[in-house]
Every structure is written in structure tokens, then in C-alpha cells.
Amino acid sequence: MAPVKRKTNIMAQSTYTSVVLAQRPKATIVPGETFTLKQNPILTEADLKDGQVLVETLYLSLDPAMRGWLNDARSYVPPVQIGELMRGFVIGKIVASKASSFSVGNYVTCSPGWTELSIQDAKAVTLLEVPPNGKVTDALGVLGGTGLTAYFGMKYIGEVKPGDFVVVSGAAGATGSVACQIAKIKGATVLGLAGSDEKVAWLKELGCDEALNYKDPEFREKFKAATKDLIDVFFDNVGGEILEAALSRAKPHARFVMCGAISQYNSATPVGPKNISMVIAMRIKMQGFIVFDYIKEYPEARKELAQWLAEGKLQRKETIIKGGLKAAEQGLADLYNGINTGKLLVEVKAEDAGVESRL
Ligand SMILES: NC(=O)c1ccc[n+]([C@@H]2O[C@H](COP(=O)([O-])OP(=O)(O)OC[C@H]3O[C@@H](n4cnc5c(N)ncnc54)[C@H](OP(=O)(O)O)[C@@H]3O)[C@@H](O)[C@H]2O)c1
């Protein structure tokens, strides 16, 4: 069904759009086949129970983990079912409220999925606060899930300290770019790995001591030279061949922060590193984690990230896809092709471009 053209006030419409899973992809997401748009009867204040709010989505976060949620396999969250609303985190605006803690016009974050409109229990919604030097969209980036992932991964698994030599893969992405900068703040020397010369140049602007394009035909030799002193901390967003290369350059007792393995998410036959025995030979501490593990510490972590942002110690970029929810499927497919520098978002509602000045 064709998407409805958005009017300024969503509740003046008769329907709103959401996106549901149509087919499980065998390998990469197939735009036009994997997901389908759905029209739903409009929701209004009359649909709310006490303690609930009506949230209009402004921005949708696109995350590599979404590909894993489409597999019918055991993981840290249940798979999205065929015909079910696609899961996702958003920044939204309260358009009706029967909860004393929220008023119409408040900006919030929540997890309603890929939908223009949703009813949320007030306890499932977080009021969005914009710190000095910050902006609304930071709530899904540097101060949201990806910034927090970088923070906890570096703090608790990387245990990064002054003088460490830290390598970050997927370094120009949302998580990686914050991970690189936290390592610098902590006094480490940092090598960032990314997929284009433009991204490499940005990593140097961020303060990385060295950055390499892993698509360079001479990457192997350059990586060997750049890691001649061997790696203390490897923050891995990518897995596959890059993880294998990092294992071969690990220092004894190196810490490997297993954050993600994006190179394998779309593969029908994922592969692990052939030299995994380096974990034994070098006594590597290799640990995976999910950011939700540290949920109780989010407020403290956000405070420190916001402080670094205010002080200009943290920089960030975002790539915002226009075109509303109908653009989300192609955007997610493109995430695995490196379309983004920094955080990838879909602008679901275009007319809120002035949102920053109203907070
Ligand atoms: N453990 C957790 O709780 C947690 C939370 C959030 C994210 N993560 C993980 O962290 C990683 C980064 O997530 P993000 O949200 O920050 O995404 P992101 O890094 O902003 O975007 C993904 C990037 O991955 C790179 N990439 C794609 N395919 C690749 C391949 N085959 N080899 C190497 N690089 C590839 C692309 O950049 P290039 O142009 O450089 O290739 C792309 O821009 C993902 O693996 C994600 O699953 C984990």
C-alpha cells in the first residue's frame, strides 16, 4: 500500500504508517521484499488508558543488530516474527498524554518500532534532555545506545588505561567513533580502521593517532606496520578477517572487546577467525557484552559523555536519511555497505527540523 503523505498534525490524518517484517532474508536484506508498509487507523487521545502517552516518531535509529533480529535463531532478544512490527528505537514527541509525568510537546526516546505513531506506557518512555553543546539527535547517538556501548565496552572490558595501544574496527561508525575518542581521553594511542579514505581522514580529525582504510589493497602490510608494538586493546565491531588480523597482532594479556561482528551479519555462512588459538597463546581476555547489561549505569555514563561533549572532547557525526519510514528499509540495507559516517538515522517526520531551537 502506498504511504500516506504526512500533514503537520498527524492526528488530522485518518491513518498512520508502520513497517512489518514480510520475509526473513536468507543473506542481505532485499528492499521491497523483506519489509512491507502497513496503514493503520489513526490513534487519538481517546485510545489512551491512564498512565499512557501517544508518541509521534521524529527519528528512527538504524542499527546493525536489526539484521540479527530478523533471523529465527536464539539471541539476546527474541526474533521479530513475520507480519510483526519491526523493532526499533526512536526519538519522538508526545502528542497526547494521560500520564502526569509527560505533557504534550515533550521530546522523548522510546522503543515503539518502525512506526509513525505509538501508544506507550509512561514508564517505557524517557524524557529527552539536551545538554550544553548537544542536540536532539544525540539521544540516539553519542548519548544513546551507541555512545553507551562504546563507553561500557572501553571501561569494563577494554579497561583502557594511559599508554595502551588501542585498535578500533568500524571506527568511523556511531559506536567506533566514540570508542576511539574515549580511548584518547583515557590516554591511549589509537589506530582506527574504516572503509574509505574520507572516513580515515575524519578519524584523524577526531584525534586518532593513525587510521587505515581496510579496503586498501595494501591494508595487510600497512596494518602490520602500524601494529609493530602489538595491540593492548582491540575494540571489535566487525569480526571476520579484521578480527583475525587483530588476533595475529595481540600483545600477551591483550583485552578484546567483542562488541559486534557486522562483516558476518548478512552472511548465510558466517565464519570465525582461523587463528582463534591466539587467545590461548597470548592469554587474551576476549569478552562479548550487550549494552543493556549496564542499564543501571546509564544515567552516570550519560552524564560523563555529556560532560565530554560540553567540553568539546567528544565530536560526532550523523547521517540522516530523509523520506520517512518508507526509506528505512533501503537505509538499513545500505548500513551494511558503509553508507554512514557516525550515527545512521531516518528522519520520519520532516517538518520538525527546527526541533533543537524549541528545547
Ligand atoms: N554489543 C552491543 O551492545 C552493541 C550495541 C550497539 C552496536 N553494536 C555493534 O557495534 C557495531 C557498530 O554498530 P553501530 O550501530 O555503531 O553501526 P555503525 O558502525 O555506525 O555502522 C556500521 C558500519 O560498519 C561498517 N561495515 C559494514 N560492513 C562491514 C564489513 N563487512 N567489514 C567491515 N566494516 C563493515 C561500515 O563502515 P565502513 O565504511 O568502515 O565499512 C558501516 O558504516 C556493530 O557490529 C553492532 O552490531 C553492539
TrEMBL record:
Gene source species: Hyaloscypha variabilis (strain UAMH 11265 / GT02V1 / F) (Meliniomyces variabilis)
Entry protein name: NAD(P)-binding protein
Stored Gene3D superfamilies: Medium-chain alcohol dehydrogenases, catalytic domain, NAD(P)-binding Rossmann-like Domain
Biological classification of the source: Eukaryota, Fungi, Dikarya, Ascomycota, Pezizomycotina
SMART domains membership: PKS_ER
Keyword annotations of the record: Oxidoreductase
GO MF annotation list: oxidoreductase activity, acting on the CH-CH group of donors, NAD or NADP as acceptor
Residues annotated as domain Enoyl reductase (ER): 32-346
PANTHER family for the chain: ALCOHOL DEHYDROGENASE, ZINC-CONTAINING (AFU_ORTHOLOGUE AFUA_7G04530), PROSTAGLANDIN REDUCTASE
